[in-house]
């Protein structure tokens, strides 16, 4: 922590809230607001919004797929994609037990789509073992009893696993497995650009094996709203109908797509800085007595830090301490905090955060020692 500048000096420099709760918290940049103000728009439900078309064409090209569709959220992107692939009742999808679709999307694939989830254990790196995926595929001979496996879902980067990246080789292997069994492959690519950047591979190559990808524009890329799903033209045609069914057909969405275009054009390259800052933060946190970070697992913009049980503090107490000092982070559980980097977090913000956390933990530990020596006296 020697390089960490004196807290008071940095506090002087930090005049605003430092929001590390998620990469969804970014505010539109001036360029985005200007693009929104001057966006050419029309009715997108009728298919005439020129800015939406421009974004969809651009995203299809970047992702190496035939077509794309703007949807309001990542949740709707995943839901529509799963429902297009599983359009027969009694379909089953294989997905990670720690995946966003399974945990955080209200079970929408079941409650709305009648799709049965078959979970496979997510390893710490976000993968599922190939042999476990294969074993989870239902034997078509048992069709009298079993649901029918139709889809495999991956998540890249894997949020709950700390933003870990699935490699091209792994994704290709899952794609081959899917093909061998006549299944489709969907990638929840809410942070696929983070993964591509961290792996150093073109994003279209990374998702080559996938039949569909849901790409969030409102996470690390910083657009205020929106996700784009990509896939074949026939997939997107069906997705458009489902989007309307779910109430996601919106009219003059060029306003939103204009900001998203700026995000794609200007912010992809900034992800590299987010990843560097996440590593810097992780390294600093790991040097603080009473905290622990699995440094090797920090591959992109998400940092999970464990609060040691003997540090006399908890995740919640630390969150409160930081909030009083203008820093917002999220408690994952009683002893785990999540901090997420994005383009509106500066290196100074990281330094200030580190010094506040160091101070909080040091105070907690010393108050415990003081309490013990008082008890002895
Ligand atoms: C991996 C992943 N997938 C999907 C989503 C859903 O996105 P949204 O919040 O836009 O519905 C999120 C949101 O945080 C996510 O982290």
In short:
InterPro entries: ArAA_b-elim_lyase/Thr_aldolase, Low_specificity_L-TA-like, PyrdxlP-dep_Trfase, PyrdxlP-dep_Trfase_major, PyrdxlP-dep_Trfase_small. With 377 residues, this protein is of the alpha/beta class.
Polypeptide structure, described:
The relative contact order is 0.17. Helix 4 crosses helix 11. The longest helix is centred in the last third of the chain and has 30 residues. 44% of the residues lie in helices and 16% in strands. The strands form three sheets. It has a seven-stranded mixed sheet, with helices on both faces.
Helix content: 40-55%
Q: Helix count?
A: 15
Unreliable spans? none
Number of domains: 2
Structural class: alpha/beta
Strand content: 15-25%
- The radius of gyration is 22 Å
Q: Give the CATH superfamily of the largest domain.
A: Type I PLP-dependent aspartate aminotransferase-like (Major domain)
Shape: globular
Second rung of CATH, namely the architecture of the largest domain: 3-Layer(aba) Sandwich
Query: What's the N-to-C terminus distance?
Result: 34 Å
Most strands sheet: 7 strands, mixed
CATH topology assignment of the largest domain: Aspartate Aminotransferase, domain 2
What's the CATH first level of the largest domain? Alpha Beta
Instruction: Strand order, main sheet: write it out.
Output: 2-8-7-6-5-3-4
SSE order in H/E notation? HEHHEHEHHEHEHEHHEEHHHEEHEEEH
User: Quick one: how many beta strands?
Assistant: 13
**Mean pLDDT reading:** 94
Q: What ligand molecules are bound, each kind once?
A: pyridoxal-5'-phosphate
GO molecular function: L-allo-threonine aldolase activity
Cofactor: pyridoxal 5'-phosphate
Pathway: Amino-acid degradation; L-threonine degradation via aldolase pathway; acetaldehyde and glycine from L-threonine: step 1/1
EC number: 4.1.2.48
């Amino acid at each position: 922590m020697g390089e960490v500048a004196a807290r008071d000096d940095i506090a002087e420099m930090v005049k605003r809230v430092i929001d590390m709760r998620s990469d969804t918290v970014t505010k539109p940049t001036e360029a985005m607001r200007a693009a929104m103000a001057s966006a050419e728009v029309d009715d997108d439900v009728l298919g005439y919004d020129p800015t939406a078309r421009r974004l969809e064409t651009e995203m299809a090209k970047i992702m190496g797929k035939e077509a794309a569709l703007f949807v309001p959220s990542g949740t709707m992107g995943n839901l529509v994609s799963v429902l297009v692939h599983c359009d027969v009742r009694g379909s089953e999808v294989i997905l990670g037990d720690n995946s966003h679709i399974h945990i955080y999307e209200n079970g929408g694939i079941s409650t709305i789509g009648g799709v049965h989830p078959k979970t496979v254990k997510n390893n710490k790196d976000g993968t599922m073992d190939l042999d476990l995926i294969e074993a989870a595929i239902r034997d078509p001979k048992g069709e009298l009893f079993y649901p029918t496996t139709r889809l495999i879902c991956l998540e890249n980067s894997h949020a709950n696993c700390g933003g870990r990246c699935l490699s091209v080789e792994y994704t290709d292997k899952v794609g081959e497995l899917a093909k061998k069994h006549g299944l489709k492959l969907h990638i929840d690519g809410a942070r696929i650009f983070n993964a591509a950047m961290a792996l150093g591979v073109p994003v279209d190559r990374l998702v080559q094996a996938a039949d569909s990808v849901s790409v969030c524009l409102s996470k690390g890329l910083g657009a205020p709203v929106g996700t784009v799903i990509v896939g074949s033209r026939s997939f997107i045609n069906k997705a458009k109908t489902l989007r309307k069914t779910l109430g996601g057909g919106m009219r003059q969405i060029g306003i939103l797509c204009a900001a998203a275009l700026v995000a794609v054009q200007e912010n992809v390259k900034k992800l590299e800085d987010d990843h560097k800052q996440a590593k810097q933060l992780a390294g600093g946190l790991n040097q603080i007595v009473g905290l622990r970070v699995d440094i090797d697992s920090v591959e992109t913009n998400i940092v999970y830090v464990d609060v040691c049980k003997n540090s006399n503090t908890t995740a919640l107490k630390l969150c409160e301490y930081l909030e009083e000092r203008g820093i917002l982070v999220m408690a994952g559980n009683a002893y785990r905090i999540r901090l997420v980097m994005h383009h509106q977090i500066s290196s100074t913000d990281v330094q200030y955060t580190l010094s506040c956390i160091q101070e909080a933990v040091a105070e907690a530990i010393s108050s415990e020692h003081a309490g013990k020596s008082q008890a002895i006296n």
